[in-house]
Specification:
Number of strands: 14
Strand content: 25-35%
Order of helices and strands: EEEHEEEHHHEHEHEEHEHEEHEH
Structural class: alpha/beta
CATH class of the largest domain: Alpha Beta
Radius of gyration: 25 Å
CATH architecture of the largest domain: 3-Layer(aba) Sandwich
């Protein structure tokens, strides 16, 4: 079942078209990546979902009904532009944001203390926000976004400003929240993070949705018939056996262990013939398809080459 559906949403600012007839559906309890180059329309879509701005056309459906102002209390949103008040104390700032989401001060303090300890921020409660590093401020922003345990969380470039250790900490928390039933949407340029934690993605380019679906299905669907073989035997013998049957992309003879060869086969029908020819000429130990990375697919899609 989908927690959120965007149906034929369009939005323009003056003469600039930010979104052009965009539709997508986000299943409950998943991590959903919203991808695209700068200026593609991702942030505009997130703001429409959060009712910060309204679409010119189309609908946003949340939990089976047109999204309402009250639904915002069931959503946590961390924008790319961080909004902390530098002259406030860190603890009071966090309590203030929690109360905006309908939490009592008592509940907010109790849960904040737990999160601050988890993120190693317990000594910063009474310090000014202006003393925080960018990474620490990012942690505070994350905490106040998730504190009220919303049904859906939206992060715009959540890993910006984080070192690898803290980025991994954030990824772990995102996956834990998903496992507890929360739905997470995040916009990012970090393709490695997409492959690690996303279940589904939508790629927006030039204001349009050009690719949507389950990540594993997308990677397999857009494989390019590229294969890698491990073998023992003479490289020249294998090259002669495969000549005219496929394109040799890369060959790495090894004085110890297995030699490796990467090849491109023009059609699916030729795959079995190539395997047979290779197996008869050398000791073939493995033959596997090389699945493209999301980064490869992102670049090919944006360039119109899928």
């Amino acid at each position: 079942m989908n927690i959120l559906s965007v149906e034929h949403v369009s939005k323009s600012f003056a003469k600039h078209v930010a979104l052009d007839d965009v539709s997508l559906s986000i299943p409950k309890g998943t991590v959903y990546g919203l991808l695209g180059p700068n200026g593609a329309g991702k942030t505009t879509l997130l703001r429409i979902i959060n009712r910060i701005t309204a679409p010119d056309a189309g609908r946003v459906i949340f939990n089976g009904h047109d999204i309402t102002p009250d639904d915002v209390y069931s959503i946590g949103y961390m924008p790319e532009e961080r909004g902390l008040y530098k002259k406030m104390k860190v603890g009071e700032q966090a309590i203030f944001f929690a109360q905006l989401k309908g939490m009592s001060r008592k509940d907010a303090v109790s849960k904040l203390k737990e999160w601050f300890e988890k993120f190693g921020l317990e000594n910063w409660w009474n310090k000014n926000v202006g003393e925080l590093s960018k990474g620490m401020a990012q942690k505070i922003q994350f905490i106040v976004t998730v504190l009220h345990e919303p049904k859906m969380l939206i992060f715009d470039e959540p890993f910006s400003g984080f070192d690898p250790i803290n980025a991994n900490l954030l990824k772990k928390e995102i996956l834990d929240l998903r496992d507890k039933g929360c739905t997470i949407i995040f916009s990012t340029h970090n393709m490695a993070s997409v492959e690690e934690i996303c279940d589904h993605i939508t790629l927006i380019n030039k204001s349009k949705n050009i690719l949507s679906g389950n990540i594993d299905e997308i990677r397999h669907r857009h494989g390019s018939n590229i294969f890698e073989a491990d073998y023992r035997g003479d490289e020249e013998t294998l090259l002669n056996a495969l000549r005219g049957r496929c394109e040799i992309m890369e060959s790495k003879p090894s004085p110890v262990g297995f030699n490796k060869m990467k090849i491109h086969i023009a059609t699916d029908a030729e795959v079995r013939h190539v395997i047979s020819a290779a197996n008869e000429s050398v000791e073939l130990r493995s033959f596997r398809e090389v699945i493209p990375s999301m980064n490869d697919i992102f670049i090919r899609a944006v360039n119109g080459n899928l």
